[in-house]
Amino acid sequence: MSHRPTLLIISYYFAPSPMVGAKRFSFLTREFARMGFDVHVVTNAIGESAHGREDSSLPVTGTVHRVSAPFEVPIKGNGWLQRVTNAVLRRVLAPVGMDYFWARAATRKALEVASKLPRGIVIATSPPHAALIAGTRVARRLKWPLILDYRDPWSAYDWPEWHRGWISQWFARRIEGALVRRSAARVLNTPSMRDWFEESFPQAPVEKNFVVPNGFDAVPAGLPPPVGAAIEIVHAGEIYGSRSLVPLLRAVEQLSQRHVERAIHVTTYGALPPAEWQRIRNAGLERFIDERPRIPFATLFAELQRAHVLLAVVSDHMTYSVPYKIYDYMAAGRPILALAPRDAALHELLSDSDAGRCVEPTDIDGIGQALEQILFSAAPPTRTRIDHFRWANLAQDYLNAIDAAVGTSHASTTSGPDLVARTDS
Prior knowledge:
This protein is of the alpha/beta class. It has helices at 23-34, 80-92, 102-114, 130-142, 166-182, 191-200, 246-258, 274-282, 297-306, 325-332, 345-353, 364-377, 383-386, 391-406, 416-424, and strands at 6-11, 38-44, 63-67, 121-126, 146-150, 185-188, 209-211, 231-236, 264-269, 289-292, 309-313, 336-339, 356-359. Helix 1 (23-34) crosses helix 14 (391-406), helix 3 runs parallel beside helix 4 and helix 7 (246-258) crosses helix 12.
């Protein structure tokens, strides 16, 4: 039996799942293990998804225990019975999510795993919210401290009606409130998310609410963009919803007229919807953009390192979030231009990290000024500030939440074993 501190992590997504939700704790688990924690992860079984089956770039560390839900939701099939059943389930499960039934299987597996372990801490990360439900059940049964980790908010955000109606939101708030009351600490992904959370759950002690963002691993520096070559602005991912590249392309057109010696071009690795292409053609801007298909991450990352500017776009209904691609951009080491609403969390992140500039999506003049500064006059990003977002540093930050959960303090990794003695006492 191990005498190291025990972390029992409930994460629906985990390496080598290709889902973006797998990345956070795949990397944090690796760092926790390096710090001396005995890490056990209860996660969903790997299956096919629209993003493929496995992401070999993710580290698989700790002891991983996989468990499937007792049955799949939504139910497969195109018959009328399946359609009716799925429609009913979507309405009934809207407050907790369609993965709700995984919580019971995960709870059983986690209790089985914990029965062979010394006392420790439960960390449950969401979404899906079934992980928080399972984590709370496990912590209650074991009488272990519980940390709720939010990659995205549950009910603590002003979701639009199309996302979640008021009845579902009412039930979600009460279900989540019960879990929050049982938690010892909370970790949220951005300061904006923490603000929404504290407004929604004022009874949760604010000194036990922490912000630990996502991060990146250091990588060897790539070759800089060729001197004198056309300026490439690269976007990774699809453009959808209320997002549009038309204001950016107008700014590129204006900048091209002022700097005729350099061609400026936008490349997006991901589909543009037909409506967006129509808007671009109506504006006569199609010559400034090239749409390419999605490519494997290793190949894409090389393209990111060769770009002059890396582009991110945030929609107006997810202002709390920072797209995960921002951290991939940080790792690539190229300046970032982000288009986001004024109150978006991305403004603060780019300011704190000095990784790039954030402009409102429709501010053509502001976009043009930001591009001109990045391309023709700005100093290179400050790596010391960007490097705070490396996973090794963020795992150290996470110790504050662990300390709060168990009521102890261990500022260095060498004090980890003391945690077990204190929590056992």
